[in-house]
């Protein structure tokens, strides 16, 4: 993560089944990870129970972002010290505690 004023956009691929959204996403994730530009990724899957819903989305992203950036890892640790149950809480609380607040703290 850098402190510059660059924009870091989020892209959403949307379309009918079978048009290649997963292939595009996985290829992009692999290429950016290879260049050390990917903080985290998450792919939903109907075939895996822990990827069928958004329940593990933010804990997974937080984990990978913590591996990517040590200052983010410290903020995640602080959040979990305050409330160890955050990964099991509702998705809005997960987003706030595991992603939004730690990112704001390191800006």
Overview of the molecule:
This protein is an all-alpha fold. It has a domain at 45-106. The protein is 51% helix and 0% strand. It has four helices and no strands. It has helices at residues 21-34, 57-68, 70-82, 91-106. The longest helix is centred in the last third of the chain and has 16 residues, at 91-106. The termini are close together. 12% of the residues are buried. The mean pLDDT is 88.
Keywords:
107 residues, mainly alpha, 4 helices
Q: Which stretches are low in confidence, meaning pLDDT under 50 for 5 or more residues running? A: none
Question: How many strand segments?
Answer: 0
User: How big a fraction of the residues is strand?
Assistant: under 5%
User: What is the terminal-to-terminal distance?
Assistant: 9 Å
Mean pLDDT level: 88
User: Number of helix segments?
Assistant: 4
Gyration radius, to the nearest Å?
15 Å
**Cα shape:** globular
Helix/strand layout:
Elements: H1 21-34, H2 57-68, H3 70-82, H4 91-106
Helix pairs in contact: 2-3, 2-4, 3-4
What does this entry show, briefly?
The protein has about 110 residues and is mostly helical. Helix content is about 50%, strand content about 0%.
């Amino acid at each position: 993560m850098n402190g510059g004023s660059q924009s870091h956009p989020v892209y959403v691929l949307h379309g009918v089944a079978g048009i290649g959204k997963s292939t595009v996403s996985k290829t992009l994730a692999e290429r950016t990870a290879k260049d050390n530009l990917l903080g985290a990724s998450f792919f939903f899957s109907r075939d895996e129970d822990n990827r069928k819903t958004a329940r593990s989305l933010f804990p997974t992203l937080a984990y990978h972002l913590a591996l990517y950036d040590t200052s983010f890892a410290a903020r995640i640790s602080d959040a979990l010290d305050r409330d160890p149950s955050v990964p099991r809480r509702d998705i809005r609380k997960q987003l706030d505690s595991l992603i939004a607040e730690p990112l704001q703290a390191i800006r």
